[in-house]
Each structure stands twice: as C-alpha cells, then as structure tokens.
C-alpha cells in the first residue's frame, strides 16, 4: 500500500485501485495507523522485494536449523512429503492473508480476524496467542544466538551471559521504528544465514564423517529412507518442527500493513515460499544424507569444529536479524493496540517513545526468560511449533475464507471443494497442535531426566550437541 495522495482541497484519499501505488509527501490516512505525517515514522514504506525478504527472514533462520534433525526422526521420504504438505497449507494460508487484507484494510493483526470470526473472545484468544507465539519464537532466536556465540568463542564465558547479550542486542535493534528501516538488516541477515547453511551443506559432503560420529573405524552414514523405529512422540515432534520452519505466517499481517502497494503482495509471497521450500528440501536431504543419526541440532554443528566456527560466524548476523524482527513485530503489535486512534501513534512524542520502548523491552525480557528456562534448542522449537505455530498458521485462515465466502449465492463444486479444504485444514491443524504439544512435552521431560539435559540459566556449553 502507498500513501494516499492529497487532493486540492487538502483531503486525504483512501487507497483505491487507481491510487494505491502512488507515493506522496503529503499527509495520508491509513486504515490501521491513522494520519501519517512527516512529523512521525512512515509506516507505509516497504516495497515488494523488501516484503519478500522480510517474509523469508521470519522463516529461514531458526526453523531450517532443525529440519535435518526432523528428517532423522521421520526418514528422508516421509520428511520431504511432510515438508511439502506443510509448505502447501501455509502458502495457501499466506495467500488468504493477502486477499483478506485487501478486502478488509482495517485488519492489522490476527486478533482483528479473531474478533471478526468469534467476537471479543476471539480477539482476546488470538491476540494472546499471537503475543505468546512471537515471544517464544524470539526466545528461540536468543537461544540460537547464544549457541552461535559459544561456537565461535569456544565457550569463553557462561552461556547465561551470552543469552543476556542476545537479549540486549535484540532489544536495541528491535526498537527501530518501522519495517522499512529494518529491511536492510533483513537483507544482510538472510544472505548470512543462507551462506552459513550452504557452508555446512557442502562441508558434510566433503568431510570424512560428521563431528559427533565415532572418530575411529570405517564410518558409513546411517540415514534412513523411512524411519519406523522412532516413537510417536518423536515423530510428531519432528512434524511440528517443520511447522515451525514455515510459521512466519502470523507476521505476514504486519508486513502487509506496511507495504506501499498491497497488489504486489502475491509476488512477494510466491518468491518467498518458492525460495524457502527449495532451500529447505536441499539442505534437509543433503545434511541428513551425509550425517544420518549424527546430525546436530542446530544443524550448523554437524561438520567439523573449524566449519562449525565458520558457519556460526556467518550465521550470527542472520540469527540476530531474525530475533530482532520477532521482537519488533510483537512490540509493534502491542504498541499499536495501546496507542491506536491517538496522535501519539504516528508522532514522535514522549508518550510515543515511552510506550514503544516499553513494548520492545517487555517483549525482549519475556523472550530472554523463555530462552533461559528451556535451554534445549530442538525441544523449544518443537514445543513452540506445536502449541502456538499450528493454530496461528492453520485455523484462522480457514476461518477467514469461510467468513468471506460462506454466504456466496453461487455454491458450485469449487465452493464445495474449498469448504472441504478448509475443514481439512482445521482438523489437521487441531491434531498437530494437540499431538505435537504432547510429543514436545514428553521430549523436554526426557531431556531433563537424561544426563545430557541442560538446567535453566545454565552455564553449560549449548553448542556441543
């Protein structure tokens, strides 16, 4: 979406198909942000390519680091099938967000959708789930940063200190006011994380054996085409780990709201999903094929010690970019809900800055506590993907399609097929949420009981796995 142009009488035009792509220095009225002026931040300044990069950065970063481990639990063929299935469902969900945003320009977040579907209770439920989801995801990001710092420094200081450093960095950078100003960081972060993963992918094919494999004797990868030996809890946790890798979906509402031209949303979306899916399949298959059951979580530790340092050195900017984006999006959501309708939302006043920094600090602090309390990366990723990611990526979008199309007069076979698809999305999402949460909780309990389990606020090296 672009800023509506100012008429000769000084009135601001609402976006229409004829003026939606125009940009002007005059003031504008936005359905979400209200009056946007030169005295405050321009919340409508992200182009389609910047949108695609922001979309990719909400997905590529944390989730991809656990895909080879998920393939280990499922086997290569089931892993790829599950990944493609989840990619299909989430791409459809993302598409529905763009369609719904065009039809209902006042929608900023998933809580607006909740109120349209279920009333005030829906707003409270979906809004709370959204905030918790991104806080947990930001916590995963801080944990990933601490792993990277441990890897490149040979565990020079206590891990709890590294998590605290991640908290400070995420708060400072996440407090940049608009996504337009953050997009360049997303570019850098995306380039770095892709480079890091490609380094590991190439290295595992060259190295004699993965880092955690036995150091003596002939070693042959024990990868499985289909892994039927894992328990149900491990298998379903692997599925929800893949869900996590695609669970940037709830953030697409916020990203779409800051676009200059919403008509280019689909262009950005399909570029994002195509790159993400292709990259996930290649990385997951290649790393698991060469490492087998000795694949590390996160996957950047799968090659030798030197490659591990190099890959994490590249990955750190990417992990930081992901985490600050999670903090920013969550803080922005709370910020808008507090100041929406007030002049302080779009003006650089003392109240504006106090509320904004309070929101980003609160989100960062909550994420820090989560990262310190559940210090096992793969377990945290799986839990978040199951408990919060699935209902954020599946259920609302099915409800959105039904909301806009249930009363259509021409109920032909296409309409019937789409209703059946929405029911499938709702049922499969509910199953994954319940079963995946159970599997993740069982896995977390097992890890804490095992000798290798890490304690909360631990100083232990979390990059050793």
Characterization of this structure:
The N terminus is likely disordered. The chain has one domain: Hydantoin permease (Orthogonal Bundle). The radius of gyration is 22 Å and the shape is globular. The protein is an all-alpha fold and 465 residues long. It is built from 15 helices and two strands. The protein starts with 27 loop residues before the first strand and ends in a 16-residue tail after the last helix.
How is the secondary structure organized here?
Blueprint: E1 28-30, E2 34-36, H1 48-59, H2 67-74, H3 76-103, H4 110-118, H5 120-153, H6 159-174, H7 179-206, H8 232-245, H9 251-257, H10 265-291, H11 305-339, H12 350-373, H13 377-393, H14 395-405, H15 413-449
Antiparallel strand pairs: 1-2
Helix pairs in contact: 1-7, 1-9, 1-10, 1-11, 2-3, 2-8, 2-10, 3-9, 3-10, 3-14, 4-5, 4-14, 5-6, 5-11, 5-12, 5-13, 6-11, 6-12, 7-10, 7-11, 8-13, 8-15, 11-12, 13-15, 14-15
Domain Amino acid transporter transmembrane: 46-441
Transmembrane segments: 46-67, 73-97, 124-147, 159-177, 184-206, 235-256, 268-290, 310-329, 350-374, 380-403, 415-438
Subcellular location: Membrane
């Amino acid at each position: 979406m672009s800023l509506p142009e100012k008429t000769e009488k000084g009135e601001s035009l609402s976006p229409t198909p004829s003026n939606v792509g125009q940009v002007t220095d005059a003031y504008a009225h936005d359905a979400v942000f209200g009056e946007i002026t030169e005295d405050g931040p321009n919340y409508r300044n992200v182009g389609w390519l910047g949108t695609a990069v922001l979309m990719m950065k909400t997905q590529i970063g944390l989730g991809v680091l656990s895909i080879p481990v998920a393939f280990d639990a499922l086997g290569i063929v089931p892993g790829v099938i599950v990944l493609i299935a989840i990619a299909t469902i989430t791409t459809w969900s993302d598409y529905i967000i763009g369609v719904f945003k065009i039809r209902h320009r006042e929608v900023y977040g998933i809580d607006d959708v909740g109120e349209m579907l279920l009333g005030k209770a829906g707003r409270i439920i979906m809004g709370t789930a959204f905030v918790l989801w991104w806080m947990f995801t930001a916590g995963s990001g801080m944990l990933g940063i601490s792993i990277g710092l441990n890897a490149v420094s040979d565990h020079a200081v206590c891990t709890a200190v590294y998590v605290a450093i991640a908290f400070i960095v995420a708060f400072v950078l996440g407090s940049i006011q608009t996504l337009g100003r953050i997009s360049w960081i997303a570019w850098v972060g995306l380039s770095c994380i892709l480079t890091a993963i490609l380094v590991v992918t190439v290295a595992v094919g060259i190295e004699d054996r993965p880092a955690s494999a036995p150091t003596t004797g002939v070693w042959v990868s024990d990868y499985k085409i289909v892994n039927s030996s894992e328990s149900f809890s491990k298998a379903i946790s692997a599925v929800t780990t893949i869900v996590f890798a695609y669970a940037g979906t709830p953030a697409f509402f916020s990203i779409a709201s800051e676009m200059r031209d919403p008509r280019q949303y689909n262009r950005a979306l399909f570029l994002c999903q195509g790159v993400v899916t292709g990259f996930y399949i290649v990385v997951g298959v290649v790393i698991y094929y060469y490492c087998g059951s000795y694949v590390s979580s996160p996957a950047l530790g799968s090659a030798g010690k030197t490659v591990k340092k190099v890959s994490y050195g590249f990955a750190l900017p990417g992990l930081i970019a992901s985490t600050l984006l999670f903090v920013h999006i969550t803080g922005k959501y709370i910020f808008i809900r507090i100041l929406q309708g007030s002049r302080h939302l779009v003006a650089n006043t003392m109240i504006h800055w106090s509320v904004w920094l309070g929101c980003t600090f609160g989100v960062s602090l909550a994420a820090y506590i989560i990262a310190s309390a559940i210090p096992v990366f793969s377990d945290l990723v799986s839990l978040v993907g199951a408990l919060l990611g699935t209902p954020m990526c599946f259920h609302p979008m099915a409800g959105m399609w039904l909301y806009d199309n249930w009363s259509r007069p021409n109920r032909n076979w296409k309409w019937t097929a789409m209703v059946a698809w929405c029911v499938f999305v709702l049922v499969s999402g509910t199953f994954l949420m319940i079963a995946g949460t159970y599997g993740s909780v069982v896995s977390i309990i097992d890890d804490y009981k095992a000798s290798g389990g890490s304690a909360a606020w631990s100083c232990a090296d979390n990059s050793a796995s």
